[in-house]
């Protein structure tokens, strides 16, 4: 469960940044970078390696602990978007050609990520284009609400899509580690305990 909890924290941290971008026009780079970087760590052996350690996911782990403990979130849209991404992941994982297209696109963008870093506008823009050309065709659609002034800006929309792709990466990892809806329904206490354990290590 501990490894699965880290994947869920990655998902929540990505969605939290999606909401921040949609409502304020900008992200928390420190929280954003490990989420986006996870896209390029395709062959990582552990969940820790995917995110660079639990310290990089402290915001997501706190969100996960609060959610699994039954606390009322200030932004319930985070849970809604995260659940939608878990549904999208099921469709995505059943389409090998689509998965291959995303994989190839990420490998191509990796050169720019190495040069500029994961949070550079060019990297985020290309990841956003990749999401728009692949994952956005899947249903259910991920609906992101926010400030219309920001959501009308192409660069903001591209950044949101890039971070949604990072969220999907975490959803895929969650499933690969054996996560399922039964965990979310019946094992919330174990998830909260795992999140607390990671926070103690962060």
TrEMBL record:
Compartments in which it is found: Cytoplasm; Cell membrane
Sorted UniProt keywords: Cell membrane, Cytoplasm, Membrane
Keyword Protease tagged: no
Keyword match Cytoplasm: yes
Main location per the UniProt record: cytoplasm
Bilayer topology: Peripheral membrane protein
GO cellular component: cytoplasm; plasma membrane
InterPro entries (UniProt xref): HflD, HflD-like_sf
Gene3D superfamilies given in the database record: HflD-like
Origin: domain of life: Bacteria
Family named by the database record: Belongs to the HflD family.
Protein name per UniProt: High frequency lysogenization protein HflD homolog
Organism, scientific name: Alkalisalibacterium limincola
């Amino acid at each position: 469960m501990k490894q699965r909890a880290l994947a869920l924290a990655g998902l929540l941290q990505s969605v939290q940044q999606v909401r921040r971008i949609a409502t304020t026009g900008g992200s928390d780079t420190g929280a954003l970078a490990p989420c986006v970087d996870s896209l390029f760590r395709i062959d990582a052996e552990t969940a820790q390696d995917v995110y660079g350690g639990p310290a990089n996911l402290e915001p997501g782990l706190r969100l996960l602990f609060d959610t699994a403990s039954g606390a009322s979130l200030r932004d319930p849209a985070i849970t809604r978007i995260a659940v939608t991404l878990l549904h999208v992941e099921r469709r995505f994982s059943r389409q090998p050609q689509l998965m291959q297209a995303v994989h190839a696109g990420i490998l191509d963008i990796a050169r720019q990520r190495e040069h500029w870093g994961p949070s550079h506008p060019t990297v985020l823009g290309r990841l956003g284009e990749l999401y728009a050309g692949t994952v956005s065709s899947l249903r259910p659609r991920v609906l992101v609400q926010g400030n219309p002034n920001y959501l009308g800006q192409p660069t903001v929309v591209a950044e949101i899509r890039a971070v949604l792709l990072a969220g999907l990466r975490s959803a895929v990892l969650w499933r690969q580690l054996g996560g399922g809806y039964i965990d979310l329904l019946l094992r919330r206490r174990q998830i909260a305990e795992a999140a607390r354990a990671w926070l103690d290590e962060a």
